Fold this protein.
Amino acid sequence: MTIPPSGYAEYMRSPEWAARRAGVLARAGNCCEFCGAEPGLDVAGGLQVHHTSYENLGAERLGDLIVLCADCHGDAHDSSRRFSQLRSFALRRFAP
Ligand SMILES: [Zn+2]
Ligand SMILES: [Zn+2]
């Protein structure tokens, strides 16, 4: 099942997403997978799960998601260069 972009907010509230998010956070060992910072979970400015691509929304593969600290996450969305850099980083590191 993949989700159309219009269904994104709803998907973020679904149990499927909660389970996938928990899996990626476990993979990350509670630190930023890009810079290694450990800001903590579920706190303001804490770790966030970022989509490196929305292509497989609803059926994300390992390289489609990366756990980032607030700083890295801000950069990811501020700069399209950083966005694609994170995409190739995640694919290299996590894709089978
Ligand atoms: Zn970071
Ligand atoms: Zn993001």
